[in-house]
UniProtKB/TrEMBL annotation:
This is Acetylhydrolase. It comes from Alteromonas gracilis. InterPro entries: AB_hydrolase_fold. It holds the Pfam family PAF-AH_p_II. The lineage of its organism: Bacteria, Pseudomonadati, Pseudomonadota, Gammaproteobacteria, Alteromonadales. Residues 1-39 form the signal peptide. Keywords: Hydrolase, Lipid degradation, Lipid metabolism, Signal. It comes from the Bacteria.
Length: 441
């Protein structure tokens, strides 16, 4: 369904793009150089288990981590229609048989401040043998970001028996995009490649010599944040529905003929296919964290109605980048009965990243892509761990007890009814689920 875009709509779109890319970027007039890497830092505090949801506790497996490259088997079309080679760097977490050298993750903030994080995983440890093969989870960051932006989810799910591959989306990372001079440079590639990259990643893990004998790639889930969520909705069957004006606006194209060609290139489904029916049967569940695109209705409604894979949408009710109403629109139009919407009260867009490294505290430009005004980020991470594991255990591993943890309803606030306080949500201790709301079909 192609929707008309009027001048007011265009103004709203450009405002969203400015927010998405960081309005402060426009104020920079000089190139910011990366700083030297300081010692690795631990971003997490030792909270007692009682104040966190039950499935946020670490699993039984030691976690290994490996960095690998994934290459498209053939040249692909870029947004201009040129044939190009495309490669991705993946960070892959997995159950390990024993601990090895402790890993660190080196990344940079949007302004190029380099930092190093202490991992809870062993670099290149041997993979643990198991009675059954491990399901595969794909993690996809936003615009911009990096493959370890949600490393807490990668480590957590691996400790519970998954192989988890997180993507550095080429052209769309903090390292690739110079916000000081050209903040929108990677956005056209992001629109085109998010879902394609997610499908390639699943296939790459199933074929990789280190993982192929240990994974069951017929059982998979996808987790996407922001633009990663935009991709994940498509990966499980949502078809993009750009019209000429939207294609021109989001790619900076002036020529109407070029815009029409770009529209045709963008309007695909399920990893670059022609139809929402082309969803890989391996996908069993999707977690869409603050997914982008619904606020502009860039998805075909009929294809959303026909999605069969259960999708858990997670949204701050004050999201000013993806727009809460836009995320609700995606949820309301997603046809799968198992789909749900988890609303985080008084949250904006940063519901998924790890806590800010100390190097980000020098400016709002950097810090603003990590923190939330009204939430402790570590608590948000724990909520994500809990519901991500419940979702994947329920629908990927078919564990019925995990499904019960998804079947909470309404508000978590335990507001008294007729003078009696309700029981807390299943999986949460009394008083510690405040600020959440769950809606099902």
């Amino acid at each position: 369904m192609n929707l008309p875009v009027n001048n007011k709509k265009i103004s709203q779109i450009m405002k969203t793009l400015t927010l998405l890319c960081g309005a402060a970027a426009l104020a920079f007039s000089t190139t910011l150089l990366p700083t030297p890497v300081s010692a690795a830092q631990n971003l997490y505090k030792p909270f007692p288990a009682d104040v966190m949801p039950s499935l946020s506790e670490k699993g039984a497996y030691v976690v290994g981590v490996k960095t690998i490259e994934a290459t498209y088997p053939e040249k692909v079309k870029d947004i201009a229609g040129n044939d190009v080679e495309r490669k991705l760097t993946l960070e892959v977490w997995y159950p390990a048989s024993s601990a090895a050298k402790t890993a660190t993750y080196v990344n940079e903030t949007r302004s190029g401040q380099v930092f190093e994080i202490e991992a809870d995983a062993s670099r290149d440890a041997p993979i643990a043998k198991a009675e059954s093969s491990y399901p595969v989870i794909v993690i996809s960051h936003g615009y911009t970001g990096y493959r370890t932006l949600m490393y807490y989810l990668g480590e957590h799910l691996a400790s519970h028996g998954y192989v988890v591959a997180a993507i550095d989306h080429t052209d769309s990372t903090n390292k690739d995009v110079n916000f000081a001079e050209n903040p929108y440079s990677g956005f056209p590639s992001t629109l085109l490649n998010r879902s394609r990259d997610q499908v390639l990643t699943l296939n790459s893990i199933s074929e990789h010599e280190f993982f192929r004998d240990s994974v069951d790639a017929s059982k998979a889930g996808v987790i996407g944040y922001s633009m990663g969520g935009y991709g994940a909705v498509s990966t499980v069957g949502g078809c993009y529905a750009f019209n000429d004006q939207a294609a021109a606006t989001f790619t900076g194209t002036q020529d109407p003929k070029v815009a029409a060609l770009i529209k045709d290139a963008l309007n695909t489904c399920a990893g670059g296919n022609d139809s929402g029916k082309d969803v890989l049967p391996a996908w069993k569940a999707a977690l869409a964290l603050a997914p982008w695109g619904g606020q502009h209705q860039l998805f075909d409604v009929e294809s959303l109605n026909n999605i069969k894979v259960p999708v858990l949408y997670v949204a701050g009710d004050n999201d000013d980048i993806s727009g809460y109403e836009g995320i609700k629109w995606l949820f309301e139009n997603t046809g799968s009965e198992g789909s749900k919407l988890l609303t985080i009260k008084n949250a904006r867009h940063n519901v998924a990243p790890h806590p800010a490294p100390k190097e980000a505290y020098g400016s709002e430009f950097d810090l603003g892509s990590y923190i939330e005004p009204a939430w402790e980020v570590q608590k948000l991470n724990a909520i994500n761990e809990h519901f991500a594991l419940a979702l994947m255990n329920c629908h990927v591993k078919s564990m019925s007890d995990a499904c019960e943890l998804l079947n909470v309803e309404g508000s978590s606030a335990q507001e008294p009814v007729d003078g009696k306080k309700p029981e807390p949500w299943k999986g949460f201790d009394d008083r510690w689920a405040l600020g959440l709301e769950m809606q099902g079909k």
